[in-house]
Amino acid sequence: MDTTHEEDRGTPVGRRVVLGLLGLGAAGVAAGPFLQRLESGLAERDPSGLTGLLPGNNGFRYYSVVTSVPERDATNYTLTVDGLVERPATHRLADLQAMPQRRLVKDVQCVTGWRVPDTPFEGVPLAHLLDTAGVQPGAKAVRFSCFDGAYTESLTLDQARRDDVLVALSLQDKPITHDHGGPVRLYVAPMYFYKSAKWLSGITVTDEVQPGYWEGNGYDVDAWVGRSNGRVDAPTS
Ligand SMILES: Nc1nc2c(c(=O)[nH]1)N[C@H]1C(S)=C(S)[C@@H](COP(=O)(O)O)O[C@H]1N2
Ligand SMILES: [Mo]
């Protein structure tokens, strides 16, 4: 009888605790994707810098100019190198992983103001990919395209050949996650983070700089941290 009594009393309490934990868990899971969508929508419509007020994981804020991006991984990811090159190529993730890698640890600076200190990026120097393809005489610039189907960026050839510009495969010493533009994103260490195109799918060597997505909305094409966009941030590289 004592045992029955205890069970009768204990069960509702136990259930209450379990349901409470489940409720908390469900709210936490729901908040992530909602805030992410909200922020990406704001980023799309507000190039003025008043976006991204909600901190994401590890100091970064999620940006995308489209509402959803397909996931790509080692089975279906490709990076094409074409345009004014002697040897156009399509690299798979394993091809990129087999190339020389460089690791850099520098601050990341977004033009809207947030900064993430001492962030490791590792990947193939862009100069190596350009040399592998063989840039034709007369080429002046490089255009980047993304498998989100919308974002573009560009650099002059001199900027692209700097040793602090990577086709990055890892961020904070882990494979780049989908939300951070994985499996492969551009990393342009000395420039505002909008130059570091996420979900990189194409590198095209061109005869002139073609302004990228945000640059069509007023951002500077030469995006040196602390020397562009009217900002006074400390240089990142
Ligand atoms: N494809 C793509 N790349 C992009 C962007 C984007 O919207 N789409 N946003 C840029 C901007 S403004 C910033 S600050 C960083 C944000 O990178 P994160 O989402 O990994 O923090 O990505 C840059 N690269
Ligand atoms: Mo940004």
UniProtKB/TrEMBL annotation:
Residue ranges occupied by any Oxidoreductase molybdopterin-binding domain in the UniProt entry: 68-214
Q: Does the keyword Transmembrane apply?
A: yes
InterPro entries found in the cross-reference section: OxRdtase_Mopterin-bd_dom, OxRdtase_Mopterin-bd_sf, TAT_signal
Q: Which residues cross the membrane?
A: 17-35
Q: Mind listing the UniProt keywords for this protein, alphabetically?
A: Membrane, Transmembrane, Transmembrane helix
What's one Pfam family here?
Oxidored_molyb
Q: Which domain of life is it from?
A: Bacteria
Kindly provide the name given to this protein in its UniProt entry.
Oxidoreductase
